[in-house]
Amino acid sequence: MQLSDFHFELPDALIARYPMPERTASRLLVLDGATGGIQHQQFTDLLDLLNKGDLLVFNDTKVLPARLWGKKSTGGRIEILVERVLDENRVLAHMRSSKSPKAGAELHLVADQDSDEVLAKIEVLGRQEALFELQFTEGGNALEVMNAIGHMPLPPYIDRADELDDRERYQTVFGKREGAVAAPTAGLHFTEDFIGQCQAKGVDTTFVTLHVGAGTFQPVRVDNITEHKMHAEYIEVSPEVCEQVKTTRANGGRVIAVGTTSVRSLESASQSGELQPFSGDSEIFIYPGYDFKSVDAMVTNFHLPESTLIMLVSAFAGQDNVLAAYGEAVDQQYRFFSYGDAMLVLPSATTSEY
């Protein structure tokens, strides 16, 4: 299976650089993987497409203001993107600079790329492959400094500086567990009121945790996709979630994952063949041919061409169906990527009993 099999042409004008004024104002493309059928609806129509007894599974990770600006003691400018918080004071991070700092170097953090006032200090402890291990030494611990002077790590394709509104809008309303450097974007469409309407209809809700890493934006660099190695991300699926999933399916309801991160969480916890509590890193790579074990439908955004995420959706609803739906979305001028429109994806006939 070749990387080019997942290519599609996307006009630049369809990349959503800003969110809609209201979270629920996006459009919703409904793709039936069993028939290839496509419907064009509004996101709020999702309420009519859910059934009493269904279970919505959300990712409750919270995006860190993980982009930091600074300078080396020699004066050279640096840009830091925190990938993972190791403990109160230590993080793993990507770094851009004219010359990579060595272990023991002191870095000075400032408010933005044009500032000179030093607001915090960190020390380079060493490297773990492409990532730098950094320790916050002055100005507060890691989370305190990021929340005080960090910037929201908008994806590269948005290609603009973050703004104050992004602190709220590049964040789900239910995010509570700090640790992600990218938003679980399907969840961005939901408001507390809309979730309440779903619950009032008899739809159950639950939460897993997957701290999305910057690796989610890394391109696949091999032609044969089976040779691609996924980046590791931290996942938690609790015993309570496992019981809710099993009860839902036993009662004839559907497990509907909100976002590919929720899909990857549930499927990571199902690798034994049965959904079990899971806590730890996962490198699960889902592409066509994968046998889904715990997901019956998914809500997701539109993803980058040739990305692991479009491969995941193709595995669920069929590669030809997904590419046809994406072509239709381009023709109908849907808004793409993190701040864009949504899809409800129902499985192909070979994916699930539903």
What's the short version?
With 354 residues, the protein is of the alpha/beta class.
What's the SSE blueprint?
Elements: E1 27-32, E2 38-42, H1 46-49, E3 55-59, E4 61-63, E5 67-72, E6 77-85, E7 90-97, E8 106-110, E9 120-128, E10 131-138, H2 142-149, H3 166-169, E11 177-180, H4 192-200, E12 204-211, E13 233-237, H5 239-250, E14 255-258, H6 260-268, E15 278-282, E16 297-301, H7 308-317, H8 319-331, E17 342-346
Parallel strand pairs: 1-17, 3-12, 3-14, 4-11, 14-16
Antiparallel strand pairs: 1-2, 5-6, 5-8, 6-7, 7-10, 8-9, 9-10, 12-13, 13-15, 16-17
User: Given the helix and strand composition, which structural class is it?
Assistant: alpha/beta
- Which residues form runs of ≥5 with pLDDT under 50? none
Strand content: 25-35%
Radius of gyration: 21 Å
Q: Order of helices and strands, N to C?
A: EEHEEEEEEEEHHEHEEHEHEEHHE
How would you explain this protein's 3D organization?
The chain has 354 residues and is α/β, with parallel strands linked by helices. 19% of the residues lie in helices and 28% in strands. Strand 6 (77-85) and strand 7 form a beta hairpin. The longest helix has 13 residues, at 319-331. Helix 7 (308-317) packs across helix 8. The strands form three sheets. The protein has a nine-stranded mixed β-sheet. The chain has helices at residues 46-49, 142-149, 166-169, 192-200, 239-250, 260-268, 308-317, 319-331; strands at residues 27-32, 38-42, 55-59, 61-63, 67-72, 77-85, 90-97, 106-110, 120-128, 131-138, 177-180, 204-211, 233-237, 255-258, 278-282, 297-301, 342-346. The mean pLDDT is 95.
